[in-house]
Amino acid sequence: xxxxxxxxxxxxxxxxxxxxxxxxxxxxxxxxxxxxxxxxxxxxxxxxxxxxxxxxxxxxxxxxxxxxxxxxxxxxxxxxxxxxxxxxxxxxxxxxxxxxxxxxxxxxxxxxxxxxxxxxxxxxxxxxxxxxxxxxxxxxxxxxxxxxxxxxxxxxxxxxxxxxxxxxxxxxxxx
Length: 175
What we know:
This protein has 175 residues and is α+β, with helices and mostly antiparallel strands.
């Protein structure tokens, strides 16, 4: 028997009132807990829905080879090999009439592809980090009248899809 029951008696009016109040508080606590659980689940569902948008208009703008989500098209990030192997594969398959060589410079942080046609340099392509501020090759190519392209291999959201690399490189080769 509890302290209130001993003092007031279990069947007294005041004892019954206290018992009713205690039960109401207990029920309110259960209701509050259930409400918090439902709110947490709703918040989680909303966060999950926000993380998985339903359409491209909901995820923001995207371009030909850039955007917040990796495209299904082959690109340097889903290619079965390094980014250098990826670019070499694209260049050799898409431009078989050119002799294409590459060398790594700047301690291996930069790769330079050279396209030659009949002994003349037709294009220089530089693969470098977006953090790089190197402009020497670009400047040298401009002085010599050699077309120049730059692709960044570590720029978040820039996928360098095969079609993008192919079209941009072709445009540079055509002048």
